[in-house]
Design brief:
single chain, mainly alpha, globular
Length: about 325
């Protein structure tokens, strides 16, 4: 089982690397070197600050969801767990969600299943917010989306295929859930597997309902909007770090941010390759040539992930220190 998981992780990483190589195969290294020598690094630092601040807001929001479970974890632990989330997302596709639940479950003695339910609630809220932003942008000006798809017919056909498969998998998932519920209810009440599944599902449902049971739903909405705004600002300020993009407006940042976010729907570590491609194509719509767009995407993605990698590694090391070794030291293999 572990070998299969490792194979999938490596497969997604290879796919991302191949996309990355395809995008950058024609870019001269001298242009990257020149860009690194002329970057205004104070904007890179500011972008990192926005990112770390967004993680802090995410920790506050997560605590808001955990409280209905009759637990109140320490904010330091929650923040460190969120930093670990982004560390593991860089290493393992979607691995960060499991990692942060493992951290809080171990150090705060809260059911992992309940915590995972709160994470699903969080991600659903983020997804709804993201699609609302895309919907508003479509109403605002759909021409950018049309031009992006017109310039990339393979992307257009890929999205069409994804939408068709998405409907199929959604129907299949609903059918499996219905079948599972029917089988579960018809199984004997003394069946030990039924009791175990019932307990796990009950805990997960309790975590999933924490938004509805939250004592401050308006604060949850505010936190969600702040997280999205801070992520947008992370991208926007990097425009000023690189001279060819320093004249671009906030409107360009909003559109680029919305379009590039689709890259994270793919199970590839940190959107490697896919994010670069969409950013390059988005900037092309606003007069930034492919070479300058490629350099910008490389700078923005690399420095952001280096900051998250460093912060996440430090958080992973600090957790047993902050908790005075209340629990067995957490290892990568545990996650």
């Amino acid at each position: 089982m572990r070998n299969k998981r490792l194979f999938r992780i490596l497969l997604f990483l290879v796919v991302g690397i191949l996309i990355f190589i395809y995008i950058y195969k024609d870019l001269q290294f001298k242009k990257i070197e020149d860009a690194l020598n002329t970057l205004d690094y104070k904007w890179i630092v500011l972008s990192g600050i926005f990112g770390l601040l967004s993680h802090f807001i995410r920790a506050l929001r997560w605590n808001l969801l955990i409280e209905p479970l009759s637990h109140k974890p320490g904010l330091i632990n929650t923040y460190l767990a969120v930093l670990v989330l982004y560390l593991f997302n860089i290493l393992i596709p979607r691995g960060g969600e499991v990692a942060r639940c493992t951290v809080i479950s171990r150090y705060e003695k809260i059911s992992f299943t309940k915590l995972f339910g709160t994470v699903v609630s969080e991600r659903l809220a983020d997804l709804v917010t993201f699609f609302l932003i895309v919907f508003v942008l479509l109403l605002w000006d759909v021409s950018y989306f049309r031009e992006l798809l017109h310039n990339n017919p393979n992307l257009a056909s890929g999205l069409e295929e994804f939408s068709k498969n998405g409907v199929f998998f959604l129907v299949a998932a609903v059918a499996l859930v219905i079948i599972g519920v029917v089988v579960f209810r018809r199984s004997p009440s003394r069946n030990k597997y039924r009791n175990v599944v019932g307990k796990v599902f009950s805990q997960f449902r309790e975590g999933l309902q924490t938004i509805r049971n939250s004592s401050n739903k308006s604060l949850f909405v505010i936190y969600t909007l702040l997280i999205i705004i801070l992520w947008l600002m992370m991208l926007y300020v990097v425009f000023f770090a690189y001279e060819p993009t320093s004249h671009l407006s906030f409107r360009v940042a909003v559109i680029t941010f919305a379009l590039s976010s689709f890259a994270f729907l793919l199970p590839i570590q940190a959107g490697l390759g896919a994010w670069h491609f969409i950013v390059i194509q988005s900037l092309l719509l606003f007069g930034i040539d492919v070479d300058h767009g490629s350099v910008f995407a490389l700078v923005a993605h690399t420095f952001t992930n280096l900051i998250f990698l460093a912060a996440g590694t430090l958080a992973f090391m600090l957790l047993p220190v902050v908790n005075n070794r209340r629990a067995k030291r957490l290892k990568f293999s545990d996650v």
